[in-house]
Amino acid sequence: MKLLLLKLFLIALIVTGFLYFVSRSYLQENAIRENGIPAAAVVTGAEGTGVVVNDNPRAKITLQVTAADRLPFEATRYCIVSELGASNFDFGVVHQVRIDPDDPTKIVFTEDICSEGSNGIISLTAVILVSVMVFMWNGWPFVRGSAFPTESGETTEEPQRGVPSRSPADRMEELNDLRTRGLITEDEYQEKRAGILEGL
Asked: Which of 62, 96, 101, 179 could bridge across to 189 with cysteines, CB 3.0–4.6 Å?
């Protein structure tokens, strides 16, 4: 029961962090879109990151950004690009963007050309969140324990570290001693004895 509550607590903690992260990113993106400095961004490079979300690759887009009263600079965006929108990131394509006045490396496309910003973060983080929850529920080393029942109804216990396991001979000797002292019945003796022999 304690392990189940621990898992539920950790999952709730992760979900809360996920919601906070998404809402914070969404608000930051909207703030840049509304109050950011207008600029033009030329695509100078695009490469895959190895991450795929809903069959769409997440790409690293390199841009040459030019804004009024500012020297041109290079910026990078990570976008989840659909197959139909891939041509938007061909070399030399120009897009209108907004840049954060306090941090010019943070830019937002004014056009809906890729699932970036809040949409991309939600999709990517949701995939990671689900994966984390699945691995956690199935048992991570730091949450795996003896109180969680398996499908057979038995509990799974990790062996105690540093305590050597007893040999079959020692277990048989102890079992014989229990029978001699009358602490177990003959049926219990035969059942335990069969269990020890099966483990050989």
From this structure: 179
Which residues on adjacent β-strands are paired with residue 64?
A: 42, 74
| Residue 127, helix vs strand vs coil | helix
Structure tokens at 90: 């061909």
Distance between CA atoms of residues 29 and 27, nearest Å: 5
65: its two tokens: 């950004």
Contacts of 59 (CB under 8 A, 6+ apart): 46, 47, 48, 49, 78, 79, 80, 81, 89
> Which 8-state DSSP code applies to residue 5?
H
| Residue matched to tokens 């079959």 | 168
Q: What is the pLDDT of residues 39-68, one digit of tens each?
A: 999 999 999 888 887 788 889 999 999 998
Of 157, 152, 155, 33, the closest CA to residue 98 belongs to 33
Domain boundaries, the chain: 2-137, 168-198
Alpha-helical segments (H) within 84-156: 117-139
